[in-house]
Design a protein that fits this description.
alpha/beta, globular, Dehydroquinate synthase-like, alpha domain, 8 strands, Rossmann fold
C-alpha cells in the first residue's frame, strides 16, 4: 500500500443547530465577520458576536476577486483582528480563508497565488478561521486552499497552504433550507463531482475511498429528493456529501472536471457548480474510454456509473435530469467552440487536472467541451 496522509479542519461540528456554537467560540476576541448579504441567519450571529466582543462586519458579494479581497484585507488590518468567521456559500468561505491568510502576511497576494503568482507558502501563520457554509457544494470548510478570481489574468487560481484549514467548521443543514432550486441543483452537482473525482483519481487512498463510497449514493439520492420533492430532510445527506467531498479532494485530488472549472470560471464568470454539473458526465465517459479494460480505474468508473444509473437510469440520465431542471450547458454558460482548443490546453496545466486517472490529450479534452 502506498504511503498516504490525511488532514482536515481542526474541529468539525455537524448537525442542525450547531450555528449556535459560533458566538461562544468567539467570545472576548476581535472578530472579522465576513458574511453573505443574503443569509438571514448571519444577522443573528452578528448580534451575538457583538454582545461578546469587538466585531468588524464585512459583506462578500459574488465570487472573491483579487481587488475585492485586497480591499477587505486593508480594512481588516486596521481593525487588528485575532479571528475570522465566514458564513455563506463556498465563495464567501474562500474569501474568508483568503482574509485569514493575507491579514498577517508581510507580502502582497501575488507572492502566494498559484499559476499567476509565485505560489510561495505563507510567510506568517493564518489567523484562526471559523467556516460556516450555507450551501452544500464546495466542501471548502475542510480544505486548505482559497479560490480567487484574478480579473487581469482571466483565471481562477488558488491560494494554498497546509495551515489554511479552518480551525472550526460548523456544518448546520438548517442554513441550507432557503437555497433556491438553481443553487441547490448546481451546488449539489458540485458536491457529487467532488466525491466522484477523488474516488476515481490517480491519488485515491483508503481513507478517501471510504468517504466517497459512503457519499456517492447518499448525494445522488439527496439531489433528486431536493430538486424534485423539495425534501428539507435531504439537506442532511447533501451537506454530509459536501463535507466528505471537501475532505476527500483535500487528501486525494480531483480531475478533469475541476481542471476545466477553474479556467472556464475565470474566463466567463459562470458559477462553479454549474460548470461542474455540465462537465461531469462527458468527463466520466471520456475517462472510461481512455482507461485499460479490466483495470482498477475502469472498475471504479463502472461502479460510479452503476450508482448513477440506479438513481437516474444511466449516466446520460443524470445529464438529462440536470438539464430538465434548468442546468445550462457550456454554451449557455459562455463557452464558445472557438475557445475549446485553448481551454483544453489551460485545463491540462491546472493543479486540479493533475490527478485525473487518464492523461487525456488536448483533442480529447476539446471533445469533452463539445459534448458538454
Amino acid at each position: 500500500m502506498a504511503v498516504f496522509g490525511f488532514a482536515t479542519a481542526g474541529t468539525i461540528r455537524f448537525g442542525r443547530g450547531v450555528l449556535s456554537e459560533a458566538a461562544p467560540f468567539a467570545a472576548a476576541r476581535r472578530v472579522v465577520l465576513l458574511r453573505s448579504a443574503s443569509v438571514a441567519q448571519a444577522d443573528g450571529l452578528a448580534r451575538d458576536l457583538r454582545a461578546a466582543g469587538a466585531v468588524l462586519e464585512l459583506v462578500a458579494r459574488g465570487e472573491p476577486d483579487l481587488p475585492g479581497v485586497e480591499a477587505h484585507v486593508a480594512t481588516a488590518r486596521a481593525f487588528a483582528p485575532d479571528l475570522v468567521i465566514a458564513i455563506g456559500g463556498g465563495a464567501v468561505i474562500d474569501h474568508g480563508k483568503a482574509l485569514a491568510a493575507l491579514i498577517p502576511a508581510p507580502h502582497g497576494a501575488l507572492r502566494y497565488l498559484e499559476v499567476v503568482g509565485e505560489g510561495q507558502p505563507l510567510d506568517a501563520a493564518p489567523l484562526p478561521l471559523v467556516a460556516i457554509p450555507t450551501t452544500a457544494g464546495t466542501g471548502t470548510e475542510v480544505t486548505r486552499n482559497a479560490v480567487i478570481q484574478v480579473p487581469e489574468a482571466a483565471r481562477k487560481v488558488s491560494l494554498r497552504d497546509p495551515r489554511l484549514y479552518p480551525t472550526l467548521a460548523l456544518i448546520d443543514p438548517d442554513l441550507c433550507l432557503s437555497c433556491p432550486k438553481s443553487v441547490t441543483l448546481a451546488s449539489g452537482l458540485d458536491a457529487i463531482t467532488q466525491v466522484i473525482e477523488p474516488f476515481i483519481c490517480a491519488r485515491s487512498n483508503p481513507m478517501t475511498d471510504a468517504l466517497c463510497i459512503e457519499a456517492i449514493p447518499r448525494g445522488l439520492s439527496a439531489l433528486r429528493r431536493l430538486v424534485v420533492q423539495g425534501d428539507g430532510a435531504a439537506w442532511d445527506d447533501m451537506a454530509l456529501t459536501s463535507l466528505f467531498g471537501g475532505m476527500a479532494l483535500a487528501n486525494a485530488g480531483l480531475g478533469a472536471v475541476h481542471g476545466f472549472a477553474g479556467v472556464i470560471g475565470g474566463r466567463t464568470g459562470a458559477a462553479h457548480g454549474a460548470i461542474c454539473g455540465a462537465l461531469l458526465v462527458p468527463v466520466l465517459e471520456a475517462n472510461r474510454r481512455g482507461v485499460t479494460e479490466g483495470s482498477e480505474t475502469a472498475r471504479r468508473i463502472d461502479w460510479v456509473a452503476a450508482r448513477i444509473a440506479a438513481e437516474f437510469g444511466s449516466l446520460r440520465g443524470l445529464r438529462s435530469f440536470a438539464r430538465d431542471h434548468g442546468l445550462p450547458d457550456l454554451r449557455a454558460l459562455g463557452v464558445t467552440s472557438d475557445q475549446h482548443a485553448a481551454l483544453a490546453i489551460e485545463a491540462r496545466q491546472s493543479s486540479s487536472y493533475k490527478a485525473n486517472p487518464v492523461d487525456l490529450s488536448p483533442d480529447q479534452l476539446a471533445g469533452i467541451l463539445a459534448a458538454a
